[in-house]
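Model: Ready when you are.
Researcher: Fold this.
Model:
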Amino acid sequence: MIGPIAHVDMDAFFAAVEIRANPRLVGKPLLVGGGPNGRQVVTTASYPARAFGIRSGMSLREAQARCPEAIFLPVDPPRYLSASESLIRLFERFTPVVEPASIDEVFLDLSGIHGLIDGGGEVDLLHRHRGFQALSQDGHRG
């Protein structure tokens, strides 16, 4: 029998990792993907940037037109991989079965941890964990 499975998707993960590395970026419209003069696209945008209608896949030029004060950063794959690995280690403290689906998305088998936390709030406890919060602006779970 398959037990409860949690799906965790770290929204705006690359932006969150950059903000964790440079706290001065908190609350600023941040775009990860490159500079506004290239032919690149937005890989991810912080929530303040999203308020201007900026979305992943949008050209960086259009993003700059929508939000001239945006901060542009290049993609830093080693930094994001390291943060993802840290997140996986954090999840492994709660359950030994952690299945990464992508760099910012995992599935967790929660079947063996029901008795470890009073009230069955395993996922909520995990979501409130400071390490989890430090790695993402918003981790969606279900």
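Researcher: Now this one.
Model:
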Amino acid sequence: MTGAFLSRRRADEFDAVVSAPTARRDSATESRYADLLEVVSSLRSVPDVTARPEFVADLRSQLVVEAARMARPVDDALRARLTPSKRSAVRERRAATLLGGLAIVAASGSMAMASQAALPGDVLYPVKRAIENAETNLQSDDAAKAETLRDHAERRLQEAQQLSTDGADAATVAATLHDFTAQSNQAAELALDDYETTGDQAPIGDLRSFTERSMTELAELGDVVPEDARAALIAAAQSVQQADSAAFQVCPTCGDGTVTELPEFATTPVSSLLRLGGNAESTVVPPGFLDEVQAMADRMPPARQEPADDRGGPDDTGVLPPVDETSDTEPVIDPRPTTTPLEDLGDRIKRDLPGDDVKVDLDDTVDDVVSGIGGLVDTITSDSSD
């Protein structure tokens, strides 16, 4: 959360420098943003866009032609009869304004009510988000804005739940979870800023209650969210825990209990280690990953075969002793699998990697890596024993 606070503070500081007159700018602050101020000055010096002369001439000629077509002679008697009186015109304008306003309010209210049930991808969903933005901007202080943003973030979780239940595509679910993360982070920042300014513990308590509810809903989403949107779900859960941790640090007595714990799916899955350089919306192995792993396997030396020992010891011949078939004692069989730790690691990587198509492509490569590393370990062990 500290990085977000610093970024916002720097943005506010730069806005103050740009908005202030040049004579009133602080020299130290102006020197820090010298490059950006030069860019702003260059943009301001760009002249206004004007219409091309040929376009203006063509438009004027069209208007003249249309005006000539519409010209009709009207006698004075007809003009006097059709011209309303001044008092009547005022009344009509007022009535028209009133009726127009009522129509706009009625249409807007109906559209607003209909948009409340819209989901991402629906026609009315942008109207729903625009109304939410207006509600947030109309709040008077940080505490009220934080409360409004928390309500909107909870709506995003409900939308993600509905989309996952309806079988929506993973990209839409991931985008909704990203919106939840952004709104919850902004709400947490505003609540922390309000507590730092006023010392009021109520917003921090509300924030901690929100994180507890959100973590419960995110845990429920872990069972239904599409596999390709799981990275966005994990990021959302970790963001909620960070917000709760920041609130607990500034005010340990606000709210109930300790910091909210992450669900099991949001800890450190092995598959997340394979998505180096990826984004939160994709669970595909990064380009070139398989080639790099194959090159690593090619560079590994093959396993060296140990020569047979000719000293003739009873345990060094490499031949198993004969089994006495007349004995009543059954041979002891080791129930443990005959796999090495490296092979187990390879199996874990292939099992945790999302996507059957990627798993099939990665099988041979991981086997080569495990075999190559095993040969290298055998070589080092043999050299050290010699």
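Researcher: Key takeaway?
Model: Residues 1-45 form one domain.
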